[in-house]
């Protein structure tokens, strides 16, 4: 049974964005096994937030950061 950490985190980030007007980048570190679930939950609950997955080679990460941030 889950404890709701994913939804709590998404709600907190949405609160920071919508009510506190914090439009910075956030780094969330999670185990590899749960990344797909986190991405789905962000898409479901806060679709306006952009989610990037930085599991890649160094060159690929640099390209992702250059093109998507």
Give a quick set of tags describing it.
globular; mainly alpha; 69 residues; 52% helix; single chain; 0% strand
Structure description:
- The structure is a single chain.
- The protein has 69 residues and is mainly α.
- 52% of the residues lie in helices and 0% in strands.
- It contains 3 helices and no strands.
- It has helices at residues 5-18, 35-45, 58-68.
- The N and C termini lie far apart (35 Å).
- 1% of the residues are buried.
- The mean pLDDT is 89.
How many beta-strand segments? 0
Total count of helical runs of at least 4 residues: 3
Inertia-based shape: globular
Low-confidence stretches: none
Taken as a percent bin, the fraction of beta residues is: under 5%
Distance between the termini: 35 Å
> If you compute it from the alpha carbons, what radius of gyration comes out, rounded to the nearest whole angstrom?
13 Å
- Please provide the ordered H/E string of secondary-structure elements: HHH
The description of the largest β-sheet is: none
Mean pLDDT: 89
Helix content: 40-55%
